[in-house]
Amino acid sequence: MAMAASAAKTSKDPEALKRELWGWYMYDFANSAFFQSAGTVFIPLLIDGMATEYAWSRQGNARPKTCADLKDDKLPETECVRCVEGYGSRIITLDSISGLQTHRGTATLRLPGGINPTS
Question: Which residues contact 115 (CB under 8 A, 6 or more apart)?
Fold first, then answer.
């Protein structure tokens, strides 16, 4: 009985078989392109974010907010991270009285094995 059913499935006309194969080829092509783009674009961003958060938590500090996030929330831009030309990411401290900005380097983050998570 099972042999007869499988024989009935495989006895398609050649034109229907070509269309079915063509459909599977196109499906595989589209699926491969999706996997390639997800694997090369999104997964590294996810891994970098997870590693950075883990490194901050391992150090015992909370990750400082970016100055842009504080500005969007209409909060004073102090003790936040901003990119300073020539120095990279720096923590900005704003003196509330004089308005002077000072910046200092962020903590050097390390994962187990001495790996920098943002490398």
Answer: 51
